């Protein structure tokens, strides 16, 4: 049988208990520990009463806002992406036999499909590399995604493009300004659903 | 064992009065939204905790300009590093107070560097660091007291001033047993807030 917790708080505040209560607390490690613990809370509370909580001047909040707005995107959540499909890109022509690459298609938290391409090849100083999605059955049907920036490319893929129908990703060597596929394919691979 | 006064003795600790069912550890929707980058949550967090941060800095540094600098840094840093903040393991208040202590120490040492021997500086910085830690705890308790309802706060303050429950009852119009249970409930609340911090 222990001393009532309510009474222990009063004892902790400095009230005098009955002799029986004091005897019990003195003899009972559990009650003694509880009382010591409550005394610590009481001491802290007494020392805290004298403190005043002061709100900062509104200009501090204004400064916080300014600073946050000044550096928005870079640390802001990188879009959370989920990988949907991947492609291993391999050479198809003798001229690019040392080239390779990989691609990953992911959806971000807004449902956009992002296609990222990395190309491993010694690139000539002239021209650009262009990415294409090629039809499964008809290699003449293709849709361009755009031009790589050096060895890397990142595009959003229009929802209307059915990747079941256009599963092949191709990187071609292009002359700047040309519109049609040059026929000089650097690498090619099939987008297969990610495990 | 146990006293003759059976009514004031219980057999178990389990029945001890406590304000909330569990410490404020778990669900904190504001902290979750903060972490996810919600600027409204930042405003909420600032409104809720800037007085503690600012007052702690003001008391530690002794001047408003320094305290404002610390407050600004704490909230911009908390925001910039929000993705590494885990509300499940750290309470927002503790995170902010931790950042505040670092900022205060930085400002203090920057000020101290202006012309005092290295050894003195080191001793002082250790001393002021532990002082800030103890002070932070007191401010957290002051905050816990400030969010008690008005009557409970008044009752607790009187009890801390050694006013007896009978006298408090007389002054507030509450019954003596109500006074006692309010005092106990408030102290248990304060303890729970402290324990939630110590538990980590």
Quick structural gist:
The complex is a heterodimer of chains A (195) and B (200). Chain A has helices spanning 5-13, 19-27, 29-49, 58-70, and strands at 2-3, 82-91, 100-107, 113-120, 128-134, 142-147, 152-156, 168-174, 185-190, 192-193.
Detailed description of the structure:
The complex is a heterodimer of chains A (about 200) and B (about 200). Chain A is an alpha+beta fold and about 200 residues long. Chain A is about 25% helix and about 30% strand. In chain A, strands 2, 3, 4, 5, 6, 7, 8, 9 and 10 form a nine-stranded antiparallel sheet that branches. In chain A, helix 1 packs across helix 3 (about 30-50) and helix 2 crosses helix 3 (about 30-50). The radius of gyration of chain A is 35 Å and the shape is elongated. By secondary structure, chain B is an all-alpha fold. Chain B is about 70% helix and about 0% strand. The chains are: A alpha+beta (about 200), B mainly alpha (about 200). At the A-B interface, strand 1, helix 1, helix 2, helix 3 and helix 4 of A face strand 1, helix 2, helix 3, helix 5 and helix 6 of B.
């Amino acid at each position: 049988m222990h001393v009532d917790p309510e009474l222990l708080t009063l004892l902790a505040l400095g009230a005098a208990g009955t002799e029986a209560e004091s005897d019990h607390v003195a003899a009972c490690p559990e009650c003694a520990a509880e009382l010591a613990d409550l005394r610590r809370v009481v001491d802290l509370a007494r020392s805290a009463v004298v403190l005043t909580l002061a709100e900062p001047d509104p200009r501090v909040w204004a400064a916080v806002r300014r600073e946050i707005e000044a550096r928005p995107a870079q640390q802001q959540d990188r879009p959370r992406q989920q990988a949907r499909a991947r492609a291993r890109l391999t050479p198809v022509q003798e001229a690019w036999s040392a080239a390779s690459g990989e691609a990953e298609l992911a959806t971000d938290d807004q449902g956009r499909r992002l296609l990222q391409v990395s190309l491993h090849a010694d690139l000539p100083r002239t021209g650009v590399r262009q990415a294409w999605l090629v039809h499964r059955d008809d290699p003449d049907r293709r849709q361009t995604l755009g031009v790589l920036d050096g060895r890397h490319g990142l595009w959003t893929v229009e929802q209307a493009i059915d990747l079941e129908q256009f599963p092949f990703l191709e990187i071609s060597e292009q002359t700047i300004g040309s519109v049609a596929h040059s026929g000089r394919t650097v690498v090619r691979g099939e987008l297969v659903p990610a495990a | 064992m146990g006293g003759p006064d059976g009514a004031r003795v219980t057999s178990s600790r389990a029945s001890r009065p406590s304000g909330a069912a569990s410490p404020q550890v778990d669900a904190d929707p504001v902290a979750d939204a903060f972490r996810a980058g919600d600027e409204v949550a930042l405003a909420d967090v600032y409104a809720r905790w800037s007085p503690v941060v600012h007052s702690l800095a003001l008391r530690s540094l002794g001047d408003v300009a320094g305290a404002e600098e610390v407050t600004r840094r704490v909230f911009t840093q908390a925001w910039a590093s929000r993705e590494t903040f885990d509300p499940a393991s750290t309470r927002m208040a503790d995170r902010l107070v931790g950042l505040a202590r670092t900022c205060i120490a930085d400002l203090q040492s920057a000020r101290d560097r202006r012309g005092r021997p290295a050894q003195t500086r080191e001793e002082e910085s250790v001393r002021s660091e532990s002082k800030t830690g103890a002070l932070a705890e007191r401010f957290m308790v002051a905050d816990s007291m400030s969010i008690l309802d008005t009557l409970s706060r008044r009752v607790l303050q009187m009890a801390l001033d050694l006013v007896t429950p009978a006298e408090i009852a007389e002054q507030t119009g509450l019954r003596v047993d109500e006074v006692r249970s309010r005092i106990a409930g408030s102290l248990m609340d304060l303890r729970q807030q402290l324990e939630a911090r110590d538990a980590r």
